[in-house]
Amino acid sequence: MDLRTKKTRQSIFNAFLELRARCPLEKITVKELCAKAVIHKSTFYAHYQDLYDLADTLETEVVDQVLDSKNTDENWLEQIALREAIAKLSDREKRILSLRFFQGKTQMEVSTEVGISQAQVSRLEKNALRQIKKDL
């Protein structure tokens, strides 16, 4: 993937995560997302079919990074279990985990972006990971 494509996808992901932290997926529009990502709608549609495709892609990439192993039957079942465990998390917890593990941001960077303290990020991250482990 070339650098321009990576930067565009990252911009779309960041804008999407910021919007998702404030409102449910059903309330987000492609127009609003594109304005926040500073891209044209045609650029968005060159990468994704719709917002649901974007959400699925983001979730898949997060799950793939968490598992990061060969695709055996056992791992396939673990992926399904992990997806179900992640689906049970709140939108805020999903966003924090995505920023921390998908985008590689520090807790301080996440706290600034989400608008909460670093201690709250730490607590939410710890609780979310504990809940995922419990569900697995």
Count, helices: 8
Unreliable stretches: none
Main pleated-sheet profile: none
Shape: globular
Q: Can you characterise this structure?
A:
By secondary structure, the chain is mostly helical. Helix content is 77%, strand content 0%. The chain contains 8 helices and no strands. The protein has helices at 3-22, 30-37, 41-47, 51-67, 73-87, 91-102, 107-114, 118-135. The protein is globular, with a radius of gyration of 15 Å. The N and C termini lie far apart (33 Å). The mean pLDDT is 86.
Question: Helix and strand layout, with pairings?
Answer:
Blueprint: H1 3-22, H2 30-37, H3 41-47, H4 51-67, H5 73-87, H6 91-102, H7 107-114, H8 118-135
Helix pairs in contact: 1-2, 1-6, 4-5, 5-8, 6-8, 7-8
Structure summarized in a few sentences:
This protein is 77% helix and 0% strand. The protein is an all-alpha fold. The mean pLDDT is 86.
Keywords for this entry:
136 residues, mainly alpha, 8 helices, 0% strand
